[in-house]
Write a structure and sequence with these properties.
heterodimer; A: alpha/beta; six-stranded mixed sheet; four-stranded antiparallel sheet; 11 helices; B: alpha/beta; 39% helix
Chain lengths: 287, 290
């Protein structure tokens, strides 16, 4: 297991009189080299869980294991050195993550801070910018002058530049155009296959991850209520409902057609080709 | 040119430029949007979409050109007036809340219009009902779901009775359920006929419902027309980095398998076409049809 949460609880104490439960005895095991989608309604604990992964938040109860680090609750709050280099976190709002006066400096910050030489860092920055599809001409600009989509790409590149083993991204695709979204997902998926990295993506769009993520985790009330594959998840109406998700278009259309034809909704890959093949086969068999 | 009755357009842009230094974010944009139209603006990241809509109410000031809103020509003198004609809703509803309750928040905008107390209460009630948030009026904005927040933000904007509603990726941070709620509200506003809707979006399903699609690329308008036609153009989709709507992908996959229901862009239309398709076949096969 590259990541494991054992009975992890966390309460927010800074939000009013009564502490708000962020995580409630959460158990989760994630394997190395996979792409994992984390889904859930707002306030379900997705981002809280993510922030436990590089020690930004420390559990009140339970044990978090990341790579070969053990983060115990009630531990002296010291973060093991190297943890943050090996676990990169991309936040939900890029404007809260970027801070330098040029995009390039922002991307250099991590690698230089982790002790790389200037040449190594510059090469890492160039690679990361290319990886996310960020135009090199933008490197000299202020990150705050970029469009919202370009800013998002810069934030992802800034974390990637430090070459972490685990990459956790909180809603990385909001404000990206659909092709950039798909492109990013494809590339992140490539990182897991080619380099054995573990990629965790928090999202509220099931459809964009359906063809890429290996595992799907749904969180509600600070607990895991589902862990499994896309095929399993798209047919679990009650789990989707809890997470504020809708079944993908293909599953909805297949469901309606099946009802009209008086048969059971079949399990299939949620894409247009699979749906068309199923429908054509069905008409064939009925004639 | 020159003979257009300007008051007929909700928005009229003539040769508008916007830029800093020698880089132009918008280049020679001319547009006429009639009252009551639902317009989607699409384009890849950095195409100039947000810049364009921020010019309408002077959040950004154009470098060159003319902008008329409901027949009012934009200038330092008219800007205050123009802002009453345009309501704006942004991606992150949290950026838009100022009040401690949803009701306070709606009232805030109205106070600035110097309305009487009765009129304010009347409007709060009217628009809360219309957006289905009456039960939320006493809630703190932070306790609402994403969809409820965005509906409250729209109610606060509509209560000021603008004629033009501008949405800048208003659904991009919402989950799928909330996104559908927002789309329902937009359909209702469009049907109402009182509003001109201008929506920046990457959502092809939303575009398929609009009256008109304007595509920006490199700060210029590269396509402008019916979404039903534009969404069929693969070259255009690629240029603004969009994927064909799922409905259309399905139509094409079906056609390859000998099932031709035409090229449709909306899920509902595909559902109906498929229903017709197999019921007709059934009738023919069993000889019970005409």
């Amino acid at each position: 297991m590259v990541i494991s949460f054992e009975e992890v609880s966390y309460r927010y104490r800074d939000r009013g009189m009564t502490p708000i439960l962020g995580l409630d005895g959460l158990n989760l095991e994630l394997e190395e080299g996979r792409m994992i989608a984390v889904l859930g309604a707002p306030g379900s604990g997705k981002s809280t869980m993510l922030q436990h992964m590089n020690g930004l938040m420390r559990a009140d109860e339970g044990l978090v294991r990341i790579l070969d680090f053990n983060l115990e609750s009630g531990d002296s709050r010291k973060i093991p050195p190297k943890l943050r280099q090996r676990v990169g976190l991309v936040f939900q709002y890029p404007e809260q993550q970027l801070f330098e006066d040029t995009v390039e400096k922002d991307l250099l910050f991590g690698p230089l801070n982790f002790g790389w030489s200037e040449a190594e860092a510059a090469e890492a920055v160039r690679r990361a910018a290319f990886f996310v599809g960020l135009d090199e001409a933008l490197l000299a600009q202020s990150p705050f002058k970029l469009s919202s989509g370009q800013m998002r790409k810069a934030a992802v590149a800034a974390v990637l530049a430090a070459d972490p083993d685990i990459l956790a991204l909180d809603e990385p695709t909001a404000s990206l155009d659909p092709a950039s979204r798909e492109d990013l997902m494809q590339r992140l998926h490539g990182l897991t296959k080619a380099e054995g990295k573990t990629v965790i993506v928090v999202t509220h769009r099931l459809e964009e991850l359906v063809s890429y993520a290996d595992d799907f985790v749904v969180i509600k009330g600070g607990r895991v209520i589902f862990q499994g594959t896309a095929r399993e998840l798209v047919h679990k109406q009650e789990v989707l409902e809890e997470a504020g998700l809708m079944a993908p278009s293909s599953v909805r259309i297949a469901g309606t057609l099946a009802a009209q034809l008086g048969i059971e909704t079949p399990e299939m890959l949620p894409d247009a080709a699979a749906l068309a093949a199923w429908y054509a086969g069905l008409l064939e068999s009925q004639s | 040119m020159g003979t257009i009755d300007k008051s007929k357009h909700a928005v009229l842009l003539e040769h508008v430029y916007y830029g800093q230094g020698c880089t132009n974010v918008l280049k020679d944009v001319s547009l006429a949007i009639p009252h009551g139209q639902w317009v989607c603006i699409a384009g890849r990241n950095g195409a100039g979409k947000s810049t364009l809509i921020r010019l309408l109410n002077g959040l950004l000031l154009m470098s060159r050109g003319r902008i008329l809103i409901d027949g009012l020509e934009q200038s330092g003198r008219t800007l205050g007036d123009i802002r009453r004609h345009i309501g704006m809703v942004f991606a992150n509803p949290d950026d838009q809340f100022v009040g401690l309750t949803v009701e306070d928040d709606i009232a805030f905008g109205l106070e600035n219009l110097c309305l009487s107390r009765e009129e304010m209460q009347h409007r709060i009630q009217t628009y809360a009902e219309r957006l289905d948030i009456v039960h939320l009026l006493n809630r703190h904005p932070a306790t609402l779901s994403g969809g409820q927040k965005q509906r409250s933000a729209i109610a606060a904007v509509l209560a000021m009775e603008p004629s033009i509603l501008v949405l800048d990726e208003a659904a991009s941070m919402l989950d799928e359920k909330a996104k559908n709620e927002l789309l329902d509200s937009m359909r209702a506003m469009h049907a109402d006929g009182r509003y001109t809707l201008i929506s920046i979006t990457h959502d092809v399903e939303e575009m398929a419902e609009a009256d008109r699609l304007i595509v920006l690329d490199g700060g210029m308008v590269t396509a402008d027309g019916s979404p039903r036609e534009l969404l069929l153009r693969e070259d255009l989709l690629q240029r603004c980095r969009l994927k064909a709507p799922f409905a259309l992908q399905l139509c094409r996959e079906l056609k390859e398998r000998g099932i031709d229901i035409g090229e449709l862009v909306r899920e509902k239309e595909v559902q109906e076409a498929l229903w017709l398709y197999h019921s007709k076949r059934y009738l023919t096969a069993t000889g019970t049809g005409g």
